[in-house]
What we know:
A hairpin with a 2-residue loop joins strand 1 (69-72) and strand 2 (75-77). Helices cover 76% and strands 1% of the residues. The chain has a two-stranded antiparallel ribbon with strand order 1-2. The protein is built from 24 helices and two strands. By secondary structure, it is mainly α. This is Transcriptional regulator. Keywords: TPR repeat.
Amino acid sequence: MDGADESPLTRAFQVSLDALPAAPRRLFALLGLVPGPDFTARGCAALLGAPVPEAARLLRRLAAAHLVEQHVPGRYRQHDLVRDFARAQPAEPGAWDRLVAFHLAAVDAVDGHFSRHPLRLPRESAPACVVGFADSAEAVAWLEAEQDNLTALLRQAAVQGPHPTAWYLADAIRSVFLHRGLRAEWLAVAVPVLAAARGVPRVEALMLQSIGAACVHLGRRQEAVRHLEAALAAHRRCRWPEGEAATVNSLGIALLACGRLGDAADLFTRALALETANGSPTGRMMALNNLGFVHRQLGELAEAIGHLDLALELSARERSSWGEAVARVNLGYVRRLLGDPAGAREHLLAACALHRGLGNRYGEASALVGLSVVHADLGQHAQARADAEAALAVARQEANRDTEVGALTALGRALAASGSVVDAEALHRQAVEIARRWGSPWHVAEASAGLCVTLGLRGLPEASVLAAETLALARGHRIVLADEESLLALA
């Protein structure tokens, strides 16, 4: 640096740095490459190309010189002025590439613990390094701690490279973020990645698909359909059959959320055929589970069971915990509608444990909602309330509006069944309000049906008007409601 441009603080930083041996000075300069808010010995080891214990030792030397601070155990950061000073140091060739490769390996390791292998970009070369986690809990903890660092790293790597490693990183982060329900967080980074990927056909198609998938669950359904239709066309242009199959499935989910149940069923059937032709067991499991779900909404329970039993068999054959968990949630709901509460409870308890082990909070909350309804059917009102409250806490923490609607409805039913009808009505009204703002027609109909039944218990005249509206909504979208007989009586 030119001494004429140095501030007193800069000179003080330089004095502290000059007093250190060469190894910690090198690490300090490398820290200028870190785009995120903090860093660990593991990430610093990648920058250095050295073992983790060596990186940890050097970080302690820098901390003693007040050039980094350990703000929580094992995690370090720099004051903004110190960081600016580090970024002004000469860059070391290869260090940035090592940092990106390390994070790709770590995200791959996280994804491996989730036991779900969706559509992924084909890779041209083997990983530059390997990262391991002892179990899924450690993998999830790493992901949660590194979330902001990952998004900052990806934003920069998408623009400056190295490519194609940056695209592989985008693909891997997409997979784990969407699995964990980090949809808004993914959208915030996916849009700039898409802009950087223009002209890279498969990456562009995958980003369009992922943006569409995230928009579905954020209530931005028409936007989701537009992105998914664009993704489908992009997959076809670059002749990627696996991408086409996955996008057909995602588009089915978007149409399902729009209340177009028949069109969604057609797309899921088409996705199943494509995934079968592609030889993708995971794709087949997804399509079968979605077919089971839409047939449940249509009241076609025999068809639903047929698809879901096949999904469960396939998950066992492939040893897919994720596939088993999803199939068991859906089977639990269908078994309840078929008058088999014991079978429903068995499936839902198993699903809840599996999703919890996989770190899939969305799946866990869905299973808890089902368990609440089943326990209410069995007269176990205290347990029904506990299940619904646990599901509601997860749904609100994850900002998952669809599950929040289901949890509020289940909690209202549990309270009404135990005699707290006024409190139940308040919860049902919350569910209807959220469903009308965020939910699909099916969610609106289910929430409204719950409110109708509770209003009927109170003998309020509003019940008959709302019951007629709810029946009209359900019939307009071919939705079959579990409470249909009660609504007909009220209407």
